[in-house]
Amino acid sequence: MTYSDSGVDIKKEEDSIKSITSKMKYKREGIGAPLSEIGHYSGLIDFGEYALALTTDGVGTKVLIANEMQKWNTVGIDCIAMNVNDLLAIGAEPLSFVDYLAVESYSKEFAEQVGEGLAKGAEIANISIVGGETATLPDIIKGFDLAGTCLGMVDKSSIITGDNIQQGDAIVGIPSNGIHSNGYTLARKVVENSGYSYSDQFPYNTSTTIGEELLKPTRIYLEVLDVVKKLEVHGLAHITGSGLLKLNRITELGFDFYDPFEVSDIFKFLQEKGNIEDLEMYKTFNMGMGFVIILPEEQADEAADMVDGKVVGRIVESGIRVSDLVIEQP
After folding, report:
1. Measured distance CA(37)–CA(286) in Å, rounded
2. I need a labelling partner for 329 at 20 to 30 A (CA). Which of 8, 68, 122, 144 fits?
3. Chain centroid to CA 196: how far?
């Protein structure tokens, strides 16, 4: 199986984004003027000595598994995490959040569980939820959709775009907490086409179900800010949709992951049951690594200790490689 076969074509998605952004020509001047081009993890605007950073994202089709399991108390964490982690990827501190919840219909239990997850995510990320919007759209929505926008700030001199990345820099990886919130269209097709149900025991860990394993909330990497404040960080990346190809957002240089994390059990399960090639897995999922920090080699071990991660590779001239697997040609 491939991500495209399941209904998500990354190339067409990229083309659509280019078509949309090609029409966005107007730019404000003065306070609020853009400081970055569209396409990085976060958008930046001028706010005096600081830059304000904005991200927006949702939970995606992971919500369909939540509906199947009748378990909605973690998707709010996912919603906040996907936004906060993108802010962290340019060195910004997250401050506040607004959510958007669209539903087919409401129930009190559902609303309380969604609120529980949002509150927990906000606590982990040390942000305030300052508002939001709800909409009942039975003619459009089947089930529900949850998305949000996060505001952060960063001193202009501390913005990390990846421009300072150099060949020979070390790559420090931080483990993920499973699939996080990307690739679920393919993951769901694998489970549903292989004869399993989400309530079945997870073969690699019989104390949990497949659904519970897939609903593990996205990890929030707030500890990255400590590394940014203390060490000479050259680049940051949140590994989400399109897997390691996401690294092309931050540099034209290449990545050699010579000592990657062991692949998490959930990815082993999906690859086996879906008969998915290694290359497709790394182009779709985070494969056990949710965030990377790029910095001088002599500071790598200290950074790894600070985030409970490890040195997983180095920056090279071009291409993306994981051990002997070529993700992108040099």
Report:
1. 25
2. 8
3. 27
Three-state SS for 186? helix
- Homologous superfamily of 36-158 in CATH? PurM-like, N-terminal domain (3.30.1330.10)
Domain 170-328 has CATH 3.40.50.150: no
- Give the separation between CA 193 and CA 175, rounded to whole angstroms: 29
Determine whether 48 is exposed, middle or buried from the number of CB atoms within 10 Å of its CB (0-12, 13-18, 19+).
exposed
| Structure tokens given for 204 | 């690699």
Tokens 């491939």, residue located? 2
pLDDT digits (tens, 9 = 90+) for 64-87: 999 999 999 999 999 999 999 999
Helices and strands, counts by H and E, the chain: 11, 14
* 102/109 Cα distance (integer angstroms): 16
For the sheet containing 50-58, what is the strand order?
Answer: 43-47, 50-58, 144-155, 93-103, 128-136
